[in-house]
Each structure stands twice: as C-alpha cells, then as structure tokens.
Amino acid sequence: MTAYAPDPSATLLDARDEYFRVNQFGPNGGYDDAWVDFKLGPIPLPFPNSPGRKRAVRFHDLHHTLTGYATDARGEFEISAWEIGSGCAGYLAAWQLNLGGMVAGMLAAPRRTWRAFLRGRQSRNLYRSQYDDALLSRRVAEMRRELALDRPLATARAADVALFALALVAGLAVGLVFMVLMIPGAIVANLAALARRR
User: DSSP labels for the chain?
Assistant: First the structure.
C-alpha cells in the first residue's frame, strides 16, 4: 500500500476513517478483532490482539495519517522507528512491537529506518495525549505543526546515534523473545485453521 496523505484540513477522525477505507481495514480498523494478522515473508504468524495493543494501535493509526508512512512492510518499519525515536510513553505493547519492527527495518530498508528514527527524535507523537473526541476533532495540519512533523530533518547528533544503537540492541532481544513465544502459537493456529478447512 502506498502512503496515505490526508486532506490537511480534515479532522483526525475523518483522516483516520479514510485511512481505514483506503487500506481496507474495515470501519473500526480491526480494533475489536481477537487476532492480528502478521506475516514473516510468506509465513503467517498471527498474534493475540491484546488490550495493550488495542490501546496503542488507536494512536498508531493516527500516526500513519500524520506522518504519511505507508502500511506496507517498509512503511511499518519506518513508523516503528519513528515511534521509537519519538517515544512510546507508557505503552508497553508499542515499545515491544516497534522495537522489533525497527530491527526488521534495518535489515530491509536501513536508510529509511534511520531517517524515520531521526525524524522521531526531532518530533513528537500522540502517545502522551488523551484519546478522546477533542483529539479526534483536531485538524491534520494543526497537529502536524504541533508535533513538529512539518519541519525539515536536521543533522543527527551523537545522542541520536547512541540511542539508535541502544534501540537496535533492545529490539534484537525483544524480537528474539517474540519469535520464541509466537512461533509455536502460530504453528498451532495455522494447523487449526487447516483442520477447519477440511
């Protein structure tokens, strides 16, 4: 999927709903689904749509509309790096998923991943905001200005490089644990799905 660029004068609610439509995510983005579809190449690795992920993904989807990062694999790697760079506040599920996504991004698209992380270091996100009607009524252009997403990318500082390296190390550890925990569950889920089809 290509990047989605909403009308700057649209509200975040309207931009999010259009983002759902463009990406065929359904009317509520799959927020109520029990499982999240995830593929590692051709291998499906579904994982539970935990309450923590459900809380974080509402902001994550708004971030897609504000940053313009696509929902294809590379776009998800970029937004993972951007959210790590700008900080995921108290959203543990966002930290876990984004750290793993950032590591994958370094393997698939290292320059884009680094630029997204650096952009995150130079901007802010919505994870420290209240998710309510007041937020959803804000305009896209207004929020982009407020979060410093409308500014050109500045040169990296030594602290940016150090934090990027630290995040990659943490991401490798998180990714390894995720794979060890999720692969057996994914195998069982895939076998159960095959059995239901027969």
Answer: -PPP---TTSBHHHHHHHHHHHHT--TTTTTT-SEE--EETTEE--EE--HHHHHHHHHHHHHHHHH---SSHHHHHHHHHHHHHH--TT-HHHHHHHHHHHHHHHHH-HHHHHHHHHHHHTS--STTS--SHHHHTSBHHHHHHHTTTTSPPPPP-HHHHHHHHHHHHHHHHHHHHHHHHHHHHHHHHHHHHHHHH-
pLDDT digits (tens, 9 = 90+) for 10-27: 999 999 999 999 999 988
Asked whether the beta carbons of 122 and 148 are under 8 A apart, the reply is yes
- State phi, psi for 48 to the nearest 5 degrees: -60, 140
- Contact at 8 Å (CB) between 76 and 65? no
Residues 168, 174: Cα–Cα separation, whole Å: 10
- Average model confidence (pLDDT) across the chain: 90
Cα–Cα dist 198/126, whole Å? 45
The pTM score is 0.87
